[in-house]
UniProtKB/TrEMBL annotation:
Record Gene3D superfamilies: Nucleoside Triphosphate Pyrophosphohydrolase
Species this protein is from: Candidatus Wildermuthbacteria bacterium RIFCSPHIGHO2_02_FULL_47_12
Lineage: Bacteria, Candidatus Wildermuthiibacteriota
Range of residues in the leader sequence: none
Record domain Nudix hydrolase: where: 17-185
Protein name: Nudix hydrolase domain-containing protein
Length: 194
């Protein structure tokens, strides 16, 4: 994908004083029949916060890539056309991180909770600013096909369904991640009541 038009549009928006996201993350709060969220123990040492967060708990998900936007088709139904990039990123991350498969042809509306993060810092003596936008969405565990990797991660303690009452005691990677988990669970509860 040619990024020059994207950079030109970002510069134009910045020139008008508009915020431009420097990163977009999508995360799933997979919920079992009891309403407990599936969390993964973070393995990666690097983080958006510039800290080693390995060993702490988080949702499955990650950053969207330009390739997720390249397959949009104006002839598709609106749900798949406008949400396909997020669903593709979520399906990819979920299989990589949790061993759960989502059928590529299985499209469903996403109810997404947003959370922003603006961070100012220096790199190589130069001031930097990142504006990161993350979304979480609740999805029932029954929507996925568990693979052998999922069961292995569950057995080794790399994944766990956290009882809701125990969630405050779990060491989550960041306050923003905790917010996204809690908000997605509230949405899940609202949907379940319908």
């Amino acid at each position: 994908m040619n990024i020059q038009p994207i950079l030109a549009e970002a510069e134009a928006n910045l020139g008008r004083g508009r915020a431009v996201a420097t990163g977009i993350g999508v995360f799933l709060v997979v919920v079992n029949e009891k309403g407990d969220p599936l969390l993964r123990r973070r393995l990666e040492k690097d983080s958006l916060y510039g800290q080693d967060l390995s060993g702490k708990w988080e949702m499955t998900g990650g950053g969207m890539e330009l390739s997720h936007f390249e397959q949009a088709d104006s002839q598709e139904p609106a749900v798949s056309r406008y949400q396909r990039p997020a669903l593709q990123a979520l399906a990819q991350e979920l299989e990589e991180e949790a061993g759960l498969k989502l059928d590529d042809n299985e499209w469903f509306p996403l109810v997404m909770v947003p959370a922003f993060l603006c961070r100012k810092y220096e790199r190589d003596g130069n001031p930097r600013t990142t504006i990161d936008l993350a979304f979480s969405t609740p999805v029932q565990f029954s929507a996925f096909e568990p693979t052998a990797k999922f069961f292995e991660l569950m057995e080794r303690g790399g994944l766990m369904f956290v009882p809701r009452a125990k969630l405050p005691e779990i060491e989550i990677v960041s306050p923003r991640t905790r917010f996204l988990i809690e908000q997605a669970l509230e949405i899940n509860d609202l949907i379940a009541r319908r």
